[in-house]
Design brief:
Blueprint (H helix, E strand, L loop, with lengths): L9 H4 L2 H31 L21 H14 L4 H17 L6 H21 L14 H15 L4 H23 L13 H17 L3 H23 L15 H12 L6 H6 L61 H7 L30 H17 L4 E7 L6 E6 L5 H5 L2 H7 L12
Antiparallel strand pairs: 1-2
């Protein structure tokens, strides 16, 4: 049965914004590296000199290339191989780098790489089709070795001779080069990432991308956020560890202690809005009363007046309303458990220093042994196995009789009384064969003294 193994990398565990942030930064780094590489190759080609040392030109003169010997070797190798094909070599990667840095997009990579190679070869063939100038220092055409091979190979295969008719091959390669270069640069493709939009939609998408890019946090902002979060967490941990000072209850002059305690308890309890008070004190409420003044608290003890059912909407404002007791707590804290006494602690951990002799622990500390299951093998099964074992031994040429069978929890002992003249070594050597024939895990044969 095949099993599917699923593995999750570290990127899969990150949130989507973090993964998008890392993906954008990686695309920008790749684009900048590609841009720097193309700039270095272009600089080495711009300062190329045929007199510089290369793979096939050993000279002791000074290197004219701005990138030194490595730049001179790379430039000379490219000029000898593709000549003017370096134009197609540099242009598409430059566009790729700009798109990676600006839009973080590089789609259809395999197709673009293939078209890039075709564009370089076709541009080299076009360079070889052009007449070489007197200042061209190489013995090959202006398309290098690859351009000459493609141009003259195509002419020979087509059987075209003459410069006038042979120029058609150059025009053919020119069309291929133009199409391949533009396609490799991505100008001829319309992908899902870059849909064709009208002017208004393009402006909106441009503004949305700019806003999204502006809202994206930078590395410095993320580091500052981490530091601030760490500082706040450290401050909270320190405040939790500090001892809290006890809150002293203050009592005003002329205020009973019981009323002060009731006020404190009422202040700690959340008071929900009472819609009955609003309904009864709507239009006839006192004009000078504060809108959110707390109602006077009823006395803690004493007889309460029985509620009287009046007609709805026909109440006197001067009659005090008997609402539910706001001082009654809603949640009752559980009572603390009793503290263990000294006797319990003394019996749980007796002293080991006031005894002269060691006392063995009582047997009640030991657990009862587990009861083993009863013998599940029946006598008939044992008799059948004994008869089968006699038959197996007889097949191997050993005659005898099983005299006794002693079953055990793991091993069953079969006592064999061999026939006269049977050697014990003969029976002992058949241990593996007996186990195989009896379908047992193993068998051991030994002489009983």
């Amino acid at each position: 049965m095949r099993t599917i193994r699923r593995s999750s990398s570290l990127m899969d565990r990150l949130p989507d914004p973090v993964r998008e942030f890392l993906s954008r930064r990686a695309s920008e780094m790749v684009g900048l590296a590609l841009l720097a590489l193309m700039a270095a190759v272009a600089l080495s080609l711009a300062t190329w000199s045929v007199d510089d040392p290369s793979l096939n030109n050993a000279t002791s003169g000074a290197v004219a290339n701005w990138l030194g010997r490595p730049g001179a070797m790379v430039a000379d190798l490219l000029m000898q191989l593709i000549g003017l094909g370096v134009i197609a070599l540099l242009f598409p990667p430059l566009i790729w780098a700009l798109r990676l840095v600006r839009f973080h997009i590089f789609d259809r990579g395999a197709l673009k790489l293939g078209l890039w190679i075709v564009a370089v070869a076709a541009t080299a063939a076009v360079g070889s089709a052009l007449p070489a100038t007197p200042r061209w220092p190489l013995p090959t055409g202006m398309g290098g070795v690859i351009g000459d091979g493609l141009l003259f190979g195509t002419r020979n295969l087509a059987g075209i001779a003459g410069n006038a008719v042979g120029g058609l091959v150059g025009f053919l390669y020119a069309g291929i080069a133009i199409l391949a270069v533009t396609a490799a640069a991505g100008f001829g493709f319309v992908s899902d990432e870059d849909p064709v939009l009208d002017e208004d939609e393009a402006d909106e998408s441009w503004s949305e991308s700019e806003d999204r890019r502006d809202d994206e946090p930078g590395i410095a902002v993320i580091l500052v956020g981490w530091l601030a979060h760490g500082a706040m967490a450290l401050r909270g941990m320190i405040l939790r560890r500090l001892p809290q000072p006890p809150r002293a209850a203050t009592q005003g002059a002329g205020t009973p202690a019981t009323e002060t305690g009731a006020m404190a308890a009422a202040g700690r309890i959340r008071r929900e809005p009472q819609f009955a008070e609003e309904a009864r004190g709507g239009a006839g409420a006192r004009p000078n009363a504060p809108p959110f003044a707390p109602a006077p608290l009823p006395p803690l003890r004493g007889p309460r007046a029985a509620p009287v059912d009046d007609a709805p909407f026909d109440l006197d404002d001067d009659v005090p309303l008997d609402l539910r007791d706001l001082n009654a707590p809603r949640v009752t804290a559980p009572a603390p458990g009793p503290k263990p006494g000294k006797r319990i602690q003394r019996e749980a951990q007796p002293s080991l220093l006031d005894r002269d002799e060691f006392e063995l622990p009582p047997l009640t500390y030991l657990s009862e042994p587990r009861k083993l299951p009863a013998n599940a093998i029946s006598t008939d099964a044992l008799e059948q196995n004994a008869t089968l074992l006699e038959g197996v031994l007889e097949d191997f040429g050993v005659r005898g009789e099983i005299t006794q069978v002693r079953p055990g929890p793991v091993v069953t002992l079969y006592e064999l009384e061999p026939a006269p003249g049977t050697k014990s070594s003969r029976v002992i050597s058949l241990a593996d064969d007996i186990a195989r024939s009896m379908s047992a895990i193993s068998a051991r044969v030994a002489v009983i003294p």
